[in-house]
From TrEMBL:
Subcellular location: Cytoplasm
Coiled-coil stretches: none
Protein name listed in UniProt: Ribosomal RNA small subunit methyltransferase G
UniProt-recorded Gene Ontology molecular function terms: rRNA (guanine-N7-)-methyltransferase activity
E.C. numbers: 2.1.1.-
Amino acid sequence: MTNPRYGAGDLGPGESSPGPSSFPGRRPRRPISFPGRTAPPSRTPSDLAVPQVVSQPEGALPPSDFESVARQVFGDRFPLAADFARLLVTDGVVRGLIGPREAPRIWERHLVNCAVVSEMIPNGASITDVGSGAGLPGIVLAVARPDLHITLVEPLARRTAFLTEAVDALGLESTITVVRGRAEEAAGNFRADIVTARAVAPLDRLAGWCLPLTEVGGRLLALKGASAVDEVAEHQAVVAALGGGSPQVRLCGTGLIDPPTTVVEIVKERDVVPPAPPGRNAGGRSGGRGRTRRG
Ligand SMILES: C[S@@+](CC[C@H](N)C(=O)[O-])C[C@H]1O[C@@H](n2cnc3c(N)ncnc32)[C@H](O)[C@@H]1O
């Protein structure tokens, strides 16, 4: 079973470590096909007399007892959500981005679980999704909310290739940008009203990566599992030192999904100059406690 703290994406065999950062993102192109949506085979007149049943891979459509919830959450974008689901349970599984056991629960545990977070996102907001993996929650939010402008930050080439192909296949090029790199390397390159992250890192590390990418007055929305309350208690002093306000635990999708999605919301109150990495102190030797500000 997937650890909710670390999410659906698995660092499986063959995962490469990130190469040099690539800001802005590369967009390798390789077409993704949609099983069940590809051109039908040529038919003979006798074929036409027999109703064709197109079989769907497991998870491509929501379970019947969950379909009304999925339709309610995605509205008229439900068919696009189904395209993404199909992609995740086919290419996503084959390419090791989604565990095969996630397919039957892809809608409830992943798609709808992420989409309900849009309750907390105002119209037209800019979003940076850190550690998108297979596009959770970034692509899901773009599917549910065409008004958003979303940047997906992901260091692993195998995953950015999938993300880029998925964005193209879903026709989301005008609202999503894929950036290959680590969040901490992206600081200074761009900022967003809201930074999302799901199952990426403990809250202290996450705040250190994400608050520099957040506009002052903007928010970090960290999708967490049952650990949320403990993480807030453990890390709120670090969050404050990083310029964040008091972290609040919110629930999204209450009455729709059980359990609702737990989100730790942190308002960025001020900019903080990050400490220098070890070995970069003024004397050029390791062991320094912080950066010397010049000028
Ligand atoms: C467990 S996966 C979660 C993926 C996705 N958010 C989900 O919920 O399924 C963690 C992701 O964070 C990415 N990641 C790890 N360190 C990162 C960093 N410093 N900056 C950005 N992404 C990072 C990993 O490459 C991986 O795709």
